[in-house]
Design brief:
Elements (H helix, E strand, L loop, with lengths): L10 E5 L5 H12 L3 E3 H12 L7 H13 L7 E5 L3 H11 L5 E6 L2 H10 L6 H8 L3 H11 L2 E6 L4 H14 L3
Helix pairs in contact: 1-8, 2-3, 3-4
Length: 176
């Protein structure tokens, strides 16, 4: 955790690529001096090594497995993770954490994340987005119940400032 020990529990930001995980996680980290780990940095290492067209399927699972192995040695407040295989990896991640995390699902309509994805420097392939879209709000609600972790759902269709304020309000309610 950060030196300030502001958070009682780590935060796991998740959702399909293009929902605003990086935007909100970075705003929160800047305002409160929090440490972030973004699983995309692990994925990017594989993309750099193998090329983006080859990093899919089982090869895309490898960075997640690397992250899980590294978790006991990492110091962070926020973990940012896309919805690639949350059914497989979020339970494993939670087992490795010292404190129960708070799961933060960011959600937007399909047309919004597709448009945002097109604007990215490194767009996520459509088949990956289709795979991620299978893991929707009901999936995360069931997962949070099964894992006995708190779930916050934020619709990021509005301005990032409004979504950020909603996030902060939800965290305050939980006395984080």
């Amino acid at each position: 955790m950060s030196n300030l020990k502001i958070l009682k529990s780590p935060l796991i930001f998740t959702g399909i690529s293009g929902v605003g995980k990086s935007t909100l996680a970075n705003k929160l980290a800047q305002e409160y001096n929090l440490e972030i780990i973004d699983v995309f940095q692990y994925v990017k290492n594989y993309i750099d090594s193998y090329g983006s067209s080859k990093v899919k399927g089982n090869l895309l699972k490898k960075p997640y497995k690397d992250l899980i192995l590294d978790l006991p040695n990492l110091d962070f407040d926020i973990l940012e993770i896309a919805s690639d295989w949350p059914d497989e990896f979020i339970p494993e991640i939670i087992k490795k954490l010292k404190e129960k995390p708070i799961l933060i699902l960011l959600d937007v309509p399909e047309k919004v994340y597709l448009k945002r994805n097109e604007k990215k420097k490194m767009p996520v392939p459509k088949e990956v987005l289709q795979h991620q879209a299978k893991f929707n709000r009901p999936f995360y609600e069931n997962l949070s119940l099964k894992l006995k972790v708190e779930l916050i759902v934020i619709n990021t269709d509005s301005s990032s400032q409004k979504s950020y304020q909603e996030l902060k309000n939800n965290l305050k309610k939980l006395k984080i």
